[in-house]
Task: inverse folding
């Protein structure tokens, strides 16, 4: 037992994304999203991006884990665990199949009506991400995504349409998922919807800095406009940003390593966070732009929009930490997006992600000190290979250990004075990997019978961690045994 520090209003729950769980990619009027053009892959092969969907090829998002047809069953399981909140995303192309349509797709709107009604029936608050690495593919082909200013208005029209429709069903909203990934060349395809002429896969860099950062500026404006309009639709809305927080340590106490940490922290985390929370571009990114001949074109009133459209809370994903070193020949980790240096004091997951619960406490304190607004951990979890034993059970003690340690450090951060709203563990039900499209890397409390090639019954099965998390929620984080 630990001392109860979590508020009675603390939002315990789990998180998924539409393109990784819904399936039904062309059902009931849905148009293809950029994710529907990604073929499956493996750890040794990059996911392939196809401009045209090919016959006979496997596209994991087309079926995913079929949440579209099984949402009642899945939400009932979440309710059995005691979820207070369920983070999910709306597929933009389910509402506006081409992105620039004049009228929304009513069948798509009705689907999410049913999902939210099911949540409400079970006493679960929906937390909705408006764009979780998704953009209608038609906007990619016609406008090259957010590189075209017109896409700002298409997004705001979509956002205000669903916010108006669900204004009495959804209180918590996030604009863009892990928007700081757009600062990375390989992240621009999913986040910004931008393609090079010769793009062949998700890791082909969109390396025109001017175009990439101009597109990102358009995303910032779209987010800020959405916050402004959302508060008009319902002043009770809580609208947040969402970043992939990349926490860095210096490998050695060398001043040059510390300066490298500061550079990466500013560029990967503080740049996007400052614009969302403070409403202006920070000094260090202006210097970076000047050094790299990037000149952001501001339309009239853009600065006023950014200043007025700041978020109500800051949410982020946290899985691991990175070390930074200026030394040549240091050992890199397999799983770190930034190619971070291996930390000799940490163990790693099967996918090379370094496990660092104390780093979450450090991160929460750092963020709260910088922004002084409520925080929420909306992604955290352990991707692992889960096996069904001879008794038909899935004993995932390794996942329980990982989550327990992170819950403890969240309670420590609250004791430190951090205002933490809630926690939604990533992939509460097994889903397809965003990075590879495989099923082998599982996060969930609920096992889904499906393999990397798309074979399986899709039947759901509780893991040992299911009952553990149920107990954690029931005791408000006190009983972690």
Result:
């Amino acid at each position: 037992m630990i001392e109860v520090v979590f508020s009675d209003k603390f939002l315990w729950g789990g998180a998924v994304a539409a393109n990784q769980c819904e399936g039904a990619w062309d059902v009931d009027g849905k148009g293809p999203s950029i994710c529907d053009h990604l073929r499956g892959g493996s750890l040794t092969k990059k996911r392939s991006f196809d401009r045209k969907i090919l016959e006979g090829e496997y596209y994991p998002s087309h079926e995913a884990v079929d949440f579209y047809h099984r949402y009642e069953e899945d939400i009932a399981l979440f309710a059995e665990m005691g979820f207070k909140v369920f983070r999910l995303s709306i597929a933009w192309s389910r509402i506006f199949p081409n992105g620039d349509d004049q009228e929304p797709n009513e069948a798509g709107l009705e689907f999410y009506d049913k999902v939210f009604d099911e949540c409400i029936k079970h006493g679960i608050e929906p937390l909705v991400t408006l764009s979780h690495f998704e953009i209608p593919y038609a906007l990619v082909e016609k406008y090259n995504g957010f590189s075209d200013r017109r896409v700002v208005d298409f997004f705001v029209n979509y956002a205000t349409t669903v916010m108006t429709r669900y204004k009495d069903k959804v209180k918590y909203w996030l604009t863009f998922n892990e928007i700081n990934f757009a600062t990375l060349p390989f992240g621009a395809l999913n986040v910004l919807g931008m393609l090079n002429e010769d793009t062949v896969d998700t890791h082909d860099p969109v390396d025109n800095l001017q175009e990439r950062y101009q597109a990102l500026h358009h995303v910032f404006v779209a987010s800020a406009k959405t916050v402004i309009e959302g508060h008009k639709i319902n002043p009770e809305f809580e609208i947040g940003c969402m970043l992939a927080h990349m926490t860095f340590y210096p490998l050695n106490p060398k001043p040059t390593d510390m300066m490298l940490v500061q550079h990466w922290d500013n560029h990967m985390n503080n740049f996007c966070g400052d614009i969302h929370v403070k409403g202006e571009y920070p000094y260090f990114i202006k210097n970076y732009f000047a050094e790299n001949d990037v000149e952001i074109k501001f339309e009239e009133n853009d600065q006023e929009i950014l200043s007025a459209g700041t978020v109500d809370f800051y949410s982020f994903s946290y899985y691991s930490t990175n070390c930074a070193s200026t030394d040549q020949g240091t050992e890199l980790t397999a799983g770190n997006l930034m190619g971070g240096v291996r930390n000799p004091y940490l163990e790693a997951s099967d996918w090379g992600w370094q496990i660092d619960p104390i780093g979450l406490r450090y991160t929460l304190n750092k963020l709260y000190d910088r922004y002084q607004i409520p925080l929420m951990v909306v992604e955290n979890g352990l991707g692992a290979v889960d096996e069904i034993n001879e008794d038909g059970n899935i004993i995932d003690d390794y996942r329980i250990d990982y989550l327990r340690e992170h819950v403890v450090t969240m309670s420590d951060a609250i004791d430190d004075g951090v205002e933490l709203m809630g926690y939604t563990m990533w992939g509460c039900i097994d889903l397809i990997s965003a990075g590879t499209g495989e099923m082998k890397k599982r996060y969930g409390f609920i096992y889904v019978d499906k393999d990397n090639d798309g074979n399986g019954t899709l039947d759901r099965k509780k893991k040992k961690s299911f009952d553990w998390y149920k107990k954690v929620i029931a005791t408000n984080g006190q009983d972690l045994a």
User: Anything to note?
Assistant: The domain at 11-474 is CATH 3.20.20.80 (TIM Barrel). Residues 199-203 have pLDDT under 50 and may be disordered. The chain has one domain: 11-474.
